[in-house]
Write a structure and sequence with these properties.
Chain A is of the alpha/beta class. Helix content of chain A is 36%, strand content 27%. By secondary structure, chain B is an all-alpha fold. Chain B has two domains: 36 residues; 234 residues, MetI-like (MetI-like fold, Orthogonal Bundle), CATH 1.10.3720. The chains are: A alpha/beta, B mainly alpha. Chain A: One of its GO terms (cellular component) is membrane.
Chain lengths: 252, 278
């Protein structure tokens, strides 16, 4: 049984006079990986940042339409943004460990949300690092500064930090674009494992990556969702000429 | 090309000399001060109060007064300066008229000569508020004087904290204030410390403004309403009134050592503090 986790309904986003997204209607399935592809500046990241309301941080942004998570509107007046962001974690393009220890990085979220018991924190940190495939590499130096980790390790640390607050959805904004091929492979492997328990939406520039990791793919162009389908379908039988041109490398 | 090679050598020498000059100047100044003040330098000089207007005895009361004034001005200026920097960088909207005015004010304040602050402090704190020549008047005046430095350096330090830290923290469900308290300020701490150290240097060296607001009493200040003479003021009076040049040099030496100690302590303290956050 498939169920819809995230539903975007007529979403329009404006940055001042510039319209970044036009009428996005998109249903994203639970416990699947959905990839968003398209050229730079076409609105993929804007859409992603609309799902955890991180867009609101930008001066002059205006959002119309609605996004539903578990059928509850997230742009309603009574929505608690903190609870929303706890439920919808995000991994950014640039791996960015906080300038504190590996342990403190992972414990940051749980502490913010009021967990103080050291044993509970220890447990969460271990569980999250294990789930992010980083435990074996760092278990002997949890107190060491996280900024000393490699880019790939930092990105997995960021994922562990996100997992530590127990989200249901994980948004990833080109998570591998700053990583070397080996780190990228490890990250993709991790995404494949995480899909069993989380709904993942990933923005990527790399079409092979989209094809490898995702179940569904949406193609964005100039702020519009041009085509959205099962990944094999979209890559093998694109219905729209523009999708075909893009995935065959004719532009972008 | 031999000429190019020659030019290279000459310029290297010029740059080396310029760099050497800095070290040489410091060595000469400190050497001169030590030689001139050596005859009076002793533990007694540091631990006994001055007598006969400073002709005899030590400088203990002026050391204590200096520390009180520095501490007092920091206690006022650091919270206000850091808080306003947080407001300007984290809360104010870009292009906000209020933020523009605050920035302009801070810049203007930074450019005002200290004697003008002294005059203001004298008229406002000493006379109008009736606080008299006192640690309180002096510390308030110094606080106003160092406020722009602290605000500016804190702003720069906060601005230098990567945007990704803030986004990651907010995306984890942290509030803005939690993000500032747990991520932004700890990351900005070394930069803020630099501003504080610069300010301490300014406060320890200030003479004219303090002469007008804290007075020149040689007694040991027992409360913040007591007048006080800092080491810099003491040095000025010793030299200007021809009381004792040796003691002026001895005082100068203690000032330099004190500044070095404070700088080192601040660096060390900040490193400890940011290590705790790690």
């Amino acid at each position: 049984m498939n169920s819809i986790k995230i539903r975007s309904h007529n979403l329009n986003v404006f940055y001042g006079p510039f319209q970044a997204l036009y009428d996005i209607n998109m249903d994203i399935e639970s416990n699947k990986v959905t990839a968003l592809i398209g050229p730079s500046g076409c609105g993929k990241s804007t859409f992603l940042r609309s799902i955890n309301r991180l867009n609101e941080l930008i001066d002059g942004v205006r959002i119309e339409g609605q996004i539903y998570i578990d059928e509850k509107p997230i742009y309603a007046r009574d929505v608690d943004v903190v609870a929303l962001r706890k439920k919808v974690g995000m991994v950014f393009q640039k791996p960015s460990a906080f300038p504190m220890s590996i342990y403190e990085n992972v414990a940051y979220g749980p502490r913010i949300h009021g967990i103080k018991d050291r044993r509970v924190l220890d447990e969460i940190v271990e569980k999250s690092l294990k789930a992010a495939n980083l435990w074996n590499e760092v278990k002997d130096r949890l107190k060491a500064p996280a900024t000393g980790l490699s880019g790939g390790q930092q990105q997995r640390l960021v994922i562990a930090r996100v997992l530590a607050v127990n989200p249901e959805v994980i948004l990833m904004d080109e998570p591998a674009s700053a990583l070397d091929p080996i780190s990228t492979a490890k990250l993709e492997e991790l995404i494949a494992e995480l899909r069993c328990n989380y709904t993942i939406v990933i923005v990527t520039h790399n079409m092979q990556q989209a094809a490898r990791v995702s179940d569904y793919t949406g193609f964005f162009l100039n702020g519009r969702l041009i085509e959205y389908n099962r990944t094999e379908e979209l890559f093998v039988n694109p219905r729209d000429k523009r999708t075909e041109d893009y995935i065959t490398g004719r532009f972008g | 090309m031999p000429t190019a090679n020659y030019g290279e050598k000459v310029m290297t020498l010029v740059f080396w000399l310029a760099a050497f000059l800095i070290t040489a100047i410091l060595a000469v100044i400190i050497g001169y001060i030590v030689v001139k003040g050596f005859s009076v330098l002793s533990l007694d000089f540091i631990f006994t109060p001055p007598s006969r207007a400073g002709k005899e005895g030590g400088i203990s009361t002026t050391i204590v007064s200096t520390l009180y004034l520095v501490l007092g001005s920091l206690l006022i200026a650091v919270p206000v300066g850091v808080a306003s920097a947080v407001y300007l960088e984290e809360y104010a909207r870009k292009n906000s008229r209020f933020a523009y005015i605050v920035n302009l004010t801070a810049e203007t304040l930074a450019g005002i000569p200290s004697i003008v602050f002294g005059l203001f402090g004298f008229v406002f704190f000493v006379i109008f508020l009736g606080w008299g020549w006192s640690i309180l008047s002096g510390a308030m005046t110094m606080a106003i004087m160092i406020l722009p430095t602290i605000t500016r350096t804190s702003q720069e330090a906060i601005l230098a904290v990567p945007r990704e830290y803030r986004e990651n923290s907010l995306a984890l469900g942290a509030s803005k204030w939690q993000t500032i308290r747990k991520i932004v300020l700890p990351s900005a701490l070394p930069g803020i410390a630099t501003g504080i150290i610069l300010s301490i240097g300014r406060a320890v060296g200030e003479t004219a403004a303090l002469l007008l607001t804290a007075g020149s009493s040689l007694g040991m200040p027992m409360s913040i309403t007591d007048p006080a003479r800092t080491m810099a003021v003491h040095l000025y009076i010793l030299a200007m009134e021809g009381i004792s040049l040796e003691r002026a040099f001895g005082t100068a030496f203690v000032i330099i050592v004190l500044i070095l100690i404070i700088n080192y302590a601040a660096h060390y303290g900040m490193r400890r503090l940011s290590a705790l956050g790690r």
